[in-house]
Amino acid sequence: MTDPLIWLIVLPLAWATLAFALGPGRGAWVAMAGLLAQLWLAFALAQKIGAGGAALSHAVGGWGAPLGIDLAVDGLSAAMLLLTQCVALPLAVYARSYFKTGDPAGVWFWPLLGFLIAGLNALFVSADLFNIYVTLELVGLAAVALVAAGGGAQQVAAALRYLFATLLGSGAYLLGVALLYGAYGTVSIATLTPLVTGEAPRLVWIAGILMVSGLMLKTALFPFHFWLPPAHGGAPAPVSALLSALVVKASFYLILRLWLGPLQPLLPVFAWGMALLGAAAIFWGSWQAIRAVKLKRLIAYSTVAQLGYLFLIFPLLANPAALKAGVIQIFAHGLAKAGMFAAAGVMIKATGQDTVAGLAGAVERLPVTLFAFGLAGMTLMGLPPSSGFLAKWQIIEAALAQGYWIIAVVALAGGLLAAVYVFRVLRQAFLLAPEGRAMATVPRALEWSAFALAAASVLLGLRGVELMRLVGGA
Amino acid sequence: MTGGLLFALTGAALFALGVAGVLLIAHLLRRILAFNLMGSGAFLVLVGLAQRNDVPDPVPQAMVLTGIVVAVAATALALALTRKLHGLTGQIALPEDADD
Predict the structure, then answer these.
(1) Confidence (pLDDT) at A474
(2) Is the N or C terminus of chain A more exposed, i.e. has fewer CB atoms within 10 Å?
(3) Residue A128: beta bridge partners?
């Protein structure tokens, strides 16, 4: 009962249920207390694995594999758990102020947040492919409900579009799992890994392709990104932040997990294809962000672009530095994008409109928020000393070490394009406000929690070594 | 051809039909039905392929039960959202993504 692994799943489920019973007012406090405890647990877990280097496992209810469900944590999953709690806690503080004014979306936010976090945590510690399917669906359903919680026609339509995309993705994944079970009679990742070889039957190849394409759809890799901008751009700001920072990373984590585990012998054939799509995502996403009219659309397209970087690492994975670069990029983008959506939410609340053009004059009224936006932008561009710089530098170094200079060029070009859309927002905010337009005052908790996330994304660049060591033990 | 393989092939065909439905049908109720068809196809593959010498394997059956619970939850959510959308817009199809 003292295993932190279990508590990372049980705690959010418990406070989600409590928050449902208590209502949004007191529910918010329960949620924040729960998230604080989870952050501590995740930190302790990461420290334990970072020090010992060995993976931890837990058999649920005392029933081990093959009949029961095994949970396992290694450096990679510990890092993902840490990121999830690190992003969720400031966003909870943010959401409490954001939804204070009787927003209908706030009524269901807390229970859904709990179920989402429970699903994510369970996904990161799952050690078998079927359990991963169940947790994927838990995450997907909670995320769809969060998008729809606003209740407007646009939001419901975006939620439905997102629901069909996510169900299609997990359906393909499930069929892949079914084929793998048919071939090998097991779904445990640890058992499957030595069984699958390069000479595997065609059935296994089909299974691998199905699973990875389903997950690519859920990660919104170009050209599967069509559902992301309306869902992330239309949801309330705290929800957009959660989705962009954490939910799309969960399915990417699974691709990585499969690639490093059971599907390792099959997938190198596809590594360059994935990198090509990643590069296309960087250019297409940045281009759409540069010409977006709405502020949150701009940030959502920036997510499409930043996810592209994650796929650039696949041809480089022979070098262990590439995996570390990927994890730092997950952290950098997670923290920065959560901060950026949070800052955008503040600006939209203050100006009353979700357009880039409406930001004129924001610098006088919202200096902290604008500074937060700038810091997050710094990470996305990859300027030193931010964690984004560390991630891109690692990718470029790994690419050059293996002679793949084209990947380095794409990574650099992506940074320049990010600068264009970030400065587009900042420039507009520095313009003088039109005469006679007042801005609403916003609670300071909103501004400072956005700032905390953005600052964390920059400061992580200084502590990246610890993170790399944690993943290196995996 | 063994019985198990027949189940698996039928499942694969149902899955493909379901995917086509989810992608191509605009009417939301029919789309939700198509999703259920897709899910059933995957379940059939899971149960059918796992039979060895026509002896059923209990583990995938337990998985399919779990999968059915998930599919029911997803269907319920999809139906609730469809109803909400119908109430708000009077439409039973997704509107074009307007602000792009």
Answers:
(1) 42
(2) N
(3) A188
